[in-house]
Structure to design on (918 residues):
């Protein structure tokens, strides 16, 4: 499907099927092999916004289940789709999560067969859960003592103002 | 890059006519190109692209002709000559370069070398090869030194200069991955060298032929220098044939289009590549900072024959940080990486560039218009004296891939976070599978000939999970997207092994809402060799392929080889023998063969002797998972179980699936019971987890007291010593004193 600019543009149904993993490989392959649809960001935000049960405006999808949202008071926070808020978007959301560390062979062998996991003295697994819905949001594989990783710090203002060509809401 | 080598140019040789454009030397062209780019930000100062703008069809036709010539050269050369790892797996690539060494277009294949060959050409230009040993029509040059321009020493490059009316119009370059490079241990990813003097045959951008004929002394030198001279010759002829085909194609294009148009075209093509890359970054990503460290374990402690400073275990970090700026600037930093070492896993900058390249061509610029324009659109920081820029001449580089592959999983994960945030979910990948086990060795083959072995089944690994589907199973390698496992029957002809089995390796993939692609495993019997040493090479202590968005890393490797077996007696008595090892906790190999079982996590070791009838097990890795495993579709879990991708007890424990077998023996998942069980697991998570801030308080005490093994403490100290910035970040995170360092005593852990 072509948009007004001659670039691809996909309808909502197609994009919903795409993000839900319901398109066939041939259909996905066609999307991947084409030019990118420039209206994707706005359409995906619209879909995600309709799927959550809260009204705070989604500014950016940060990861599966996580969004940077704008609150009515103007503050911007990281929010889970269950509604749990992890605090200011510039801080690492993981600091407000729950953590479970797999730092023994016994704990690692709940996930991996014997010998098919790290040596826990070298590398441990840190599972980060949402405190409300208990979804596993990230897993870090790091040595003991490694600081909590801040995976992604978006430059939100530049993205909106200079790349999307509009002010942040 | 050339600082450590003496200048070869003698002033007395400056009596010859320069071969660059408009009466300039190649070095003058290179310096002017760099000056114009520095001053204008555009390749050769090209603010406009008149040929592309005014004659777009002609411009695209020229590109298609050049690209077609390169692909044709690769496909033809591969099939008229070439060693098995080249002809079977496609371990070769060709490219065309400007006179000063910038790539214009490339073929398919191991496109990792787009920029490494550029480095090698620029090395020749900067070292005044134009004057000594001279660059003339019909010359042939060859290089395999990563510090000059390469990934690792077994990637051997050939260059042929292309002239038109006395001027150099460009270079044809070709690279193949050779079977053996003559290093201190056999194979083409040799783990034996602890200094560059043991890396094997060294071709330091040498002239190896004139008038289209290879020097006989060069051939003799190579015959003596490598363990597989026949394969070496085949590969060298492949590279030369391909380069000559490219020369023919370029000359044909010039005849058809005119030399002035061709010159304008190659510069515009690179500037277009630069602009396209920036445009693509702005179209598909989000500006910001992405931090994706990964870790490399090297275990040489206890290896006999190594000096004490090399016989150690080390953990190194590669703290990959990607910054995408407001103008689409793409800056990659490895600040905080650990020190280079006395092993062969060091990566010079050219190798790092190679890895950036091969990944960008699979993510940001997955099209045929790939050239050094994208290189010009990126910047990087490879700190000196580290694993990613050893600087020192003696650093061995033969197994640079062993560092590159885990280090660069971070680039895929960083870009995937960007693609996801932008809504392009179809481009999201968790990390690719580590390309191990490198099954390597040498000695005599089944025909009594000298041999060096690396079974290129390793170019077929599981791919990372996607945001909309599972990763592809046993599919390719990050360094060769066209890789495959090859035919077992062909491998049996080439190496002294027979297959006892080859099948999917359960639980090799990282589990998640979408699992990574699975790896597979091959079980071999050593066969009819009078003299053979073998080794394993891979990760045993770390998780080199992390997951993303809640998915788990893919599995680590282990070793299960058996020496002094009763396999031959079993064959003679027609007794069962092993063909697989689905579950190391219930090992078929242990059950069905007697002998000395090397059944452990020592997955990186020096070669040891194996004999006719011994057993070698090679596990190939899976990709990382994506998303919470409790969100996996029960129908996909059934496919996992019935396809042997996941062992049933892990479907229960990790996916929370309630499973049973139906009357036909197929696994079924009870969806409603599974949903109930998943609710219970979420409650278990809440009970066993703690708030991160509470955990940080106790973890800080652990850091302060240094309660961790020496290898981890040394890793942190090295990073703090080599990078003020990384040290400041580490100390500030844990609120440590400004002068904090760990003790490196043995007994602190």
């Amino acid at each position: 499907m072509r948009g007004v600019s001659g670039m691809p543009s996909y309808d909502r149904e197609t994009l919903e099927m795409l993000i839900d993993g319901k398109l066939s490989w041939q259909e996905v392959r066609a999307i991947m092999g084409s030019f990118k649809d420039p209206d994707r960001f706005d359409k995906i935000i619209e879909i995600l916004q309709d799927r959550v049960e809260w009204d705070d405006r989604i500014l950016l999808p940060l990861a599966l289940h996580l969004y940077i949202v704008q609150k009515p008071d103007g503050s911007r926070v990281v929010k889970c789709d269950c509604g749990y808020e992890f605090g200011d978007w510039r801080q690492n959301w993981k600091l407000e999560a729950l953590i479970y560390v797999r730092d023994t062979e016994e704990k690692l062998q709940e996930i991996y067969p014997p010998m098919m996991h790290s040596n826990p003295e070298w590398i441990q697994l840190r599972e980060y859960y949402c405190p409300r819905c208990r979804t596993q949001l990230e897993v870090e594989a790091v040595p003991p003592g490694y600081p909590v990783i801040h995976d992604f710090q978006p430059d939100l203002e530049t993205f909106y103002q200079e790349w999307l060509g509009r002010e942040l809401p | 890059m050339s600082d450590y080598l003496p200048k070869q140019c003698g002033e007395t040789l400056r009596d010859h006519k320069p071969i660059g454009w408009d009466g300039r030397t190649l070095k003058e062209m290179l310096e002017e190109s760099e000056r114009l780019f520095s001053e204008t930000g555009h390749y050769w100062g090209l603010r406009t692209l008149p040929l592309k703008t005014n004659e777009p069809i002609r411009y695209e036709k020229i590109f298609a002709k050049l690209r077609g010539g390169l692909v044709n050269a690769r496909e033809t050369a591969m099939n008229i000559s070439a060693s098995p790892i080249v002809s079977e797996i496609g371990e070769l690539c060709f490219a065309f370069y400007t006179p000063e060494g910038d790539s214009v277009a490339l073929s398919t294949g191991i496109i990792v070398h787009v920029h490494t060959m550029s480095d090698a050409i620029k090395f020749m230009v900067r070292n005044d090869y134009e004057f000594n040993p001279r660059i003339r029509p019909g010359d042939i040059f060859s290089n395999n030194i990563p510090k000059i321009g390469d990934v690792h020493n077994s990637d051997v490059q050939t260059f042929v200069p292309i002239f038109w009316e006395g001027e150099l119009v460009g270079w044809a370059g070709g690279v193949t991955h050779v079977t053996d490079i003559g290093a201190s241990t056999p194979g083409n990813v040799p783990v034996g060298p602890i200094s560059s003097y043991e890396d094997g045959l060294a071709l330091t951008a040498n002239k190896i032929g004139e008038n289209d004929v290879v020097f006989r002394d060069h051939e003799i030198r190579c015959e003596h220098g490598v363990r597989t001279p026949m394969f070496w010759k085949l590969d060298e002829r492949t590279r030369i044939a391909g380069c000559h085909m490219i020369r023919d194609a370029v000359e044909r294009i010039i005849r058809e289009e005119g030399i002035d148009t061709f010159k304008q075209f190659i510069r515009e093509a690179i500037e277009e590549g630069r602009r396209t890359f920036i445009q693509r970054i702005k179209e598909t990503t989000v500006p910001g900072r992405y931090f994706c460290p990964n870790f490399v374990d090297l275990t040489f402690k206890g290896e006999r024959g190594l000096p004490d400073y090399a016989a150690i275990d080390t953990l190194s970090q590669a703290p990959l940080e990607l910054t995408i700026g407001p103008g689409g600037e793409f800056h990659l930093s490895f600040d905080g990486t650990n020190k280079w070492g006395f092993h062969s896993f060091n990566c010079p900058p050219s190798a790092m560039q190679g890895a950036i390249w091969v990944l960008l061509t699979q993510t940001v610029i997955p099209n045929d218009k790939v050239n050094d324009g994208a290189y010009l659109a990126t910047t990087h920081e490879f700190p000196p004296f580290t694993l990613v820029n050893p600087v020192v001449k003696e650093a061995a580089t033969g197994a640079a891939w062993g560092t590159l592959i885990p280090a660069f999983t971070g680039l895929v994960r960083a870009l995937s976070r960007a693609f996801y945030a932008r809504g392009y979910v179809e481009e999201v990948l968790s990390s690719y599978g580590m390309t191990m086990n490198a099954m390597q060795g040498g000695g005599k083959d089944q025909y009594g000939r000298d041999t060096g072995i690396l079974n290129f089944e390793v170019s077929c690994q599981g791919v990372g999970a996607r945001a909309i589907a599972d990763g592809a199973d046993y599919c390719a390698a990050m360094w060769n997207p066209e890789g495959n496992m090859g035919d077992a029957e062909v491998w049996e002809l080439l190496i002294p092994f027979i297959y006892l089995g080859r099948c999917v390796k359960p639980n090799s993939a990282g589990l998640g809402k979408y699992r990574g692609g699975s790896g597979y495993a091959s079980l071999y019997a050593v066969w009819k060799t009078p003299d053979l040493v073998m080794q394993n090479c891979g990760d045993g202590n770390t998780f080199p392929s992390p997951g993303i968005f809640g998915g788990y890393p893919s599995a680590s490797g282990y070793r299960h080889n058996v020496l002094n077996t009763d396999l031959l007696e079993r064959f003679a008595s027609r007794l069962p023998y092993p063909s697989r090892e689905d579950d190391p906790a219930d090992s078929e190999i242990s059950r069905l063969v007697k002998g000395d079982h090397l059944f452990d996590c020592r997955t990186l070791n020096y070669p040891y002797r194996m004999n006719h009838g011994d057993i070698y097990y090679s596990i190939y890795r899976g990709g990382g998972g994506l998303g919470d495993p409790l969100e996996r579709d029960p129908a996909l879990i059934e496919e996992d179980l019935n396809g042997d991708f996941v062992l049933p007890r892990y479907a229960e424990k990790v996916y929370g699936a309630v499973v049973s077998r139906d009357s036909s023996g197929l696994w079924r998942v009870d969806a409603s019971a599974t949903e109930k069980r998943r609710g219970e697991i979420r409650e278990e998570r809440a009970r066993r987890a703690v708030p991160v801030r509470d955990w940080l308080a106790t973890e800080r005490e652990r850091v302060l007291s240094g309660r961790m093994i020496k290898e981890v403490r040394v890793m942190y100290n090295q990073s703090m010593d080599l990078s003020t910035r990384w040290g400041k970040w580490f100390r500030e995170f844990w609120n440590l004193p400004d002068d904090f360092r760990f003790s490196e005593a043995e007994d602190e852990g």
